[in-house]
Design brief:
It contains 7 helices and 16 strands.
Length: 355
């Protein structure tokens, strides 16, 4: 019998107790509506903290945090949570909302806005994989709601670097020009949209050039190149009530054409279009650059034939006590550019193996 067959596992060798449990990676997006306003002179600055519960001790452990969004009671968080979904397990989730008052990472330093509980299976199995829960945890208060969406992730490992500019955008500020920024959304199967990226704000200009940004193709369209991507243009306001300038739609396939006449988009405000007969647009947004990058994993290097040589050096010196600040101290002492005695010994041993 061929030796190669002896090294292959047969069906009888399969051990279900030691086999890896099949899981599906899902992306969790969080939004909130009608949060409590805990600030005196402005609106709350919310952050969402996700906790998961262990199977054994039922202890709640922090899984991750979203970004902080200033001055809003209706946040749509951009930062996602990537979880492994196990069909046969009950995976409990807890979402805690806080109003951030400082740069401290200690949650006790911030105002609690409420919390909600659910299971990952509940979110995945709900209509459109969308679950809405009332926030509780503060007696006698209506704390608003949290909206949790889940979407299965594919194995797309491509990322794209893009840069956009605007031209002749609408002027929204009374004493100055607009402070525009872009918000990107990907479409869902139920005709809703999920936020996936925000650009920075470019102050006081109607012709902004936004910084180039890198985003996974998975986050932009989850591998479906023809999925609709909606882009909204806003004028930033300090109080969080950003003024809507307009929007346009595209797709990853269109964007992949790069800088061309196909990627110059009219920014349209639907309300203005209905109200004004001669309305054309609220400016244009142009794609300046598009650069595709494939993320390579360690496994790709192994499949490509990468070999690793591993060398170990162990210091068994018994008499190595003393002050490392003095040359006559321990053997590890390094004086200016001179190598220590131990370092010289290690180099000598390595050279003896690899001359």
């Amino acid at each position: 019998m061929n030796d190669s067959f002896l090294n292959m596992a047969s069906i009888g060798d399969f051990d279900p107790l030691n086999a890896s449990i099949p899981a599906t990676k899902v992306e969790i997006t969080v939004s909130c509506r009608n949060l409590l306003d805990r600030d005196t002179f402005s609106k709350s600055d919310p952050i969402c903290v996700l906790y998961t519960q262990g199977m054994g001790n039922k202890e709640w452990r922090e899984f991750g945090r979203t970004e902080v969004i200033d001055n809003t009671l209706n946040p749509d968080f951009v930062r996602k949570f990537i979880l492994d979904y196990f069909f046969e397990e009950r995976q409990n989730l807890r979402f805690d909302l806080y109003d951030v008052d400082s740069k401290s990472a200690n949650l006790s330093k911030h105002d609690f806005l409420g919390q909600a509980y659910c299971t990952l299976g509940e979110v995945v199995g709900s209509l459109g994989s969308r679950s809405e829960k009332a926030l509780g945890g503060i007696q006698g208060k209506k704390c608003g709601t949290v909206i949790v969406k889940a979407e299965e992730l594919n194995n797309c490992r491509e990322s794209v670097m893009m840069q956009f500019c605007g031209n002749k955008l609408d002027k929204k500020d009374f004493f100055g020009k607009s402070d525009p920024f872009l918000v990107f959304y990907r479409s869902n199967e139920d005709s809703t949209f999920t936020i996936c990226h925000k650009t920075e704000v470019v102050k006081n200009t109607l012709n902004p050039v936004w910084q180039a940004f890198k985003i996974p193709v998975r986050a932009l369209c989850n591998g479906d190149y023809d999925r609709t991507i909606k882009v909204e243009v806003y004028d930033w306001d300090r109080d969080g009530g950003h003024d809507f300038i307009g929007e346009f739609s595209t797709s990853y396939r269109e964007l992949s054409r790069g800088q061309s006449q196909f990627n110059v988009y009219e920014v349209v405000n639907p309300k203005k279009k209905e109200r004004k007969k001669k309305y054309l647009n609220s400016g244009t947004v142009t794609l300046l650059s598009f650069l595709l990058d494939i993320e390579v994993t360690f496994l790709d290097y192994i499949k490509g034939g990468t070999q690793i040589n591993f060398t170990v050096a162990i210091d068994f010196t018994a008499s190595n006590d003393g002050n490392q600040m003095f040359p006559n101290g321990p053997l590890h002492h390094t004086w200016q550019l001179e190598l220590s005695a131990v370092t010289m010994a290690v180099i000598k041993d390595v050279l003896s193996v690899y001359p």
